[in-house]
Design a protein that fits this description.
Malic enzyme, binds nicotinamide-adenine-dinucleotide, alpha/beta, oxidoreductase, metal-binding, binds (2S)-2-hydroxybutanedioic acid, Rossmann fold, about 45% helix, NAD binding, binds magnesium ion
Length: about 550
Amino acid sequence: MKERQLLGIHGLLPARVKTMKEQLFLCKLTVDNYTTATGKYLYLNDLMQRNEKLFYKLLTENIEQLLPIVYTPTVGLVCQRFGFLFRRPEGIFLNIYDKGNVQQILKNWPEKGVKVIVVTDGERILGLGDLGAHGMGIPVGKLSLYTALSGINPKACLPITLDCGTNNETLLNDPQYVGLREKRIGGERYEAFVDEFMEACVEEYGPNILIQFEDFGSHHAFKFLEKYRHKYCVFNDDLQGTAAVVLAGLMSSSRITGKKLSESKILFLGAGGAANGIASLLVMGMIRQGVSKEEAIGKIFLIDADGLVVNTRTKGDLIGPKKYYAKDLNEMDDLNAIVNNVKPNILIGVSTKGGAFTPKVLKSMAAISKRPVIFALSNPTNNAECTPQEAYQHTEGRCVYASGSPFKEVEYQGKTYKTGQGNNCYIFPGVGLGVMLSQMLHIPEEVFLIAADTIAENIKQEHLDKGSVYPPITDIYNMSGLIAEAIMKYAFEKNLAGINRPESIPDFIEKHQYSTSYEDALRPTWEIPPLDTKYDMEKWDPPKSFC
Ligand SMILES: NC(=O)c1ccc[n+]([C@@H]2O[C@H](COP(=O)([O-])OP(=O)(O)OC[C@H]3O[C@@H](n4cnc5c(N)ncnc54)[C@H](O)[C@@H]3O)[C@@H](O)[C@H]2O)c1
Ligand SMILES: O=C(O)C[C@H](O)C(=O)O
Ligand SMILES: [Mg+2]
């Protein structure tokens, strides 16, 4: 009542003051009443705009049910229909004609304490291809997970879409397309635009603004990561976040298969951003287990749309990092034939090709290995290379399975399996929290090994027994805190942190996490103390609207 009077809203609301618990009950009922995933998405999206704390409380308390709505797979559908569904600004669109004015446009974002940006240019949205400006759903979804899965204040998060056109003919001819209606502008002009964007972010938000690249075409993903990683606080989620979650899953798979990663042969269907990102971290993981870099590379085989990646290709290219994994083998393009030739015990799908792991392929994997590892990581759900049901059925229940999008529990021969979601959402929220709080200026690759180790160390036998090589989704928030703690320790040890080491790192993390409680409305959770400044609630000046 006091707050209503202070805010001058007394009389605008009915007399009854509901508790958050009562409000949550109503929200849950409403979400459940929507029969379509997009209906649920739109309701949640409205709630996020209307009552941020209630939205995040609802999301965190029902994360298993609602993650597939605000994230993969529904977010993919939302991007595909973005022109119909766009209601209000949720991030910044920078189009290539804004070149020269990028910083000025960033100033239009109403929140000033931005600490984390997720940026896409929409060229490779999940496995759905080039969705141009309609890719905005992805940075919005990723950043809502930064809050729900690691407690970064939503006010510190800024989704950005760089609109440089699209090569998607359907969208170009779609009256509802809301982006620039022209073919992608690439080359030097595009790169100069991205350069200006990076500089403008630092000018506007400071040198340790964390910038996550998301769903760029793989050529640009590799290029920008190499170009910016030593200059800015930047990482690429599709390359590095994905790599960490897969390494974690493979480390836990070893507990089931009894085979170390360095003793494995790994075949990737797909040789783009995700495959190369994963392969590179797996090499680091294998080197730790005592094999040489050359040996580790020798255990990794890639297949792209033109077949097995071999040195003497007549079909297909050897452009980008995939050339490091090219083998002196004959050209082959049939997956089953390749499986029988290479004889991998681990098969990883990052191809965007739904159903590519056919019964024949799965049976071959089961014939080669007692406990084959099958990761069908392409998103959204329809793009998964196989479902858990198919994987168990065609490997006589012997496989270790994970998918990028969530699947319901499955039954096979009387046993119920709850397979894990090998998705980078286990990694980026914790990495973001740790990097942001330690105020690092750059993100070394070891950070992703640390994140992978933290997840792997926290997988319990009971989860493995149920068929999951990952902790339950409901544990991600805790995992993110642990990842952040491990990253902060590393940052202090390596002198990479921009703040002095706090007395207790877990307390420091907790103190800076977003609170969904109404009582904590005045808590300035997104403030990060400048160098060597003790945090002092007493001296904090609350926003004027509350005084
Ligand atoms: N689970 C996760 O966390 C996660 C993370 C990143 C990417 N992904 C998914 O992985 C998929 C690929 O992502 P990316 O960034 O590597 O994309 P990409 O476009 O960079 O690479 C796709 C690769 O698949 C190959 N390919 C296409 N069709 C093929 C076919 N029929 N047979 C064999 N290979 C084929 C392409 O040649 C290319 O090498 C997407 O669906 C994406 O959603 C999942
Ligand atoms: O967005 C996801 O669900 C994972 C990943 O970043 C992807 O691009 O598929
Ligand atoms: Mg992605």
